[in-house]
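Summary for the steering committee. One of the milestones for this cycle was to obtain a three-dimensional model of the protein with zinc ion bound, which we needed before selecting residues for the alanine scan. The sequence and ligand used are listed below.
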Amino acid sequence: MECVVCKHGTTYKGHVTVKLERRESIVLFKVPADICENCEHFYLDEHTAIVILNEGEKAIKQGAEFKVVRYGWVA
Ligand SMILES: [Zn+2]
């Protein structure tokens, strides 16, 4: 798809690391995303965004200081 941020690039399927930080907790998510070849802005699909929120809240509630969550990550 066309990137709506820079309006120049098109996106390719790749993986990104998303950081969620809350108080003492840091949760890193390694998830699939559509990444702009030009400006590197990335787009998560709706389901992935929900997983990040849910898993992030769960890890924070469990008092995780640092956690890495892989979701849909295909090497
Ligand atoms: Zn772009």
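Key point for the committee: The chain has one domain: 11-70.
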